[in-house]
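Tutorial, part two.
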Amino acid sequence: MNRVGYIIVGILLLAVAFFAYQQYSARRIAEIGLSNQYTKSFYELSASLNSASINLGKALVSSSSSQTAQSLAQVTRDSFSAQAYLTSMPLPLNMLLRTSKFLNQLGDYALSLARASAATPLTDNEKTTLRELFDNSKSLAKQLEDIQMKAEVGRLTWNDLSTESKQDPAKPEPFKDGFQLISDEMDRVPSLTYDGPFSDHMENLTPKGLVGADISRDEAERKAEQVVSQATKTKVDMHFAEEVKGKLAAYSFASKSGTMRIDISKKGGSVLQLFNSRNVVSTKISVAEAEKKAAEFIKAQNWPQLETTYPLVEDHTLLLSFVPLENGVLIYPDQIKVEVALDNGEILAQDSLSYIMNHYTRNLPPPSISASEAEAKLSKELKAIKTNLVVIPKTDATEAYCYEIEAQLKDSTENFLVYIDALTGTEVNILYIIPSGKGTVVM
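Running the prediction step on this input gives:
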């Protein structure tokens, strides 16, 4: 080879090396970004759980009914906040379900006690259960602190966690000194049977919204890849992660990178949950554009007619609730939630569990009172702004058929949602609309 040939080969080798370095750098930047997102979610999860533990302790020792109710209400907010951060982490489904169940029950049970304790003191049995939940939440918080310490000294990385989440569950226990221990401890949490949607006795309910024949694992994999491709607008290979058994049997699939996970129901092949943990750091599209992309994504899955309600913007993402509209009535228990990235319109998450568990044709009767009669039942301190017919979840798998009246407190900008039973005219519930420039938040 002459001198010119060697020079050309040298240039080619340098070009290949430069390209490889660019690819390596891009991967490292992506890994660092993803790791930062996991770290943020982890710290927020830990902080929310610590706050829940503190407020459980306050409720346990308080001698004031109003203080007890206030502490328990904060436990509810902390628990549901912790669950939101938990689901954004790359955990295997079996771990996610156990810990998520605990957080859901903790928040829901605390809310039921908060309502009851405002009128009557806690019973001895309720205090005993609170003490067990207090101890369990402290133990869970301690496990999170241990994981945090190991992460800080480099013994545990979020890349390790993402890798473990893709392993076959039959292989040796992942993170035996970390998240697996948390998962195991969740099995020892006492059964909670109470009047609420996350009560243990509710697990015996059969999903009402699943229709169609059972599908095979291969069919589920094709459906998973189709939905993920629609969500990301790119082809993503999804690999089998585990099979979830029980009344809500499903196949779980994960992407090779571990950033995406989707659960497809065995019966009917419906999307139960979809998560994309990609970090979103900027807003480049409008809320209207994001809503359109979410609506197109949901429509492609052939759900019945759905309406969007209560959009919420948070950290460069848009969260939307899709609710069935049946004969002019919004059916809130059957909602599907979708999260959209505001940088490029990519679908980041879908949660269809409420719809799957609750949906059926209700055949609602005509209301016994008119909208104007319902508005007349409002407090004299409120002025009606907008009124809709809705079905709302009540307790213990029961529902209420109501007029939802958005009303404003006189001489102020404070708004409330008041629910008046459409058949009896009684007041069923009141929610406060928290002022926010990000969207509609109610408590």
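Residues 3-61 form the longest helix (59 residues). In part three we will examine how such features are distributed along the chain.
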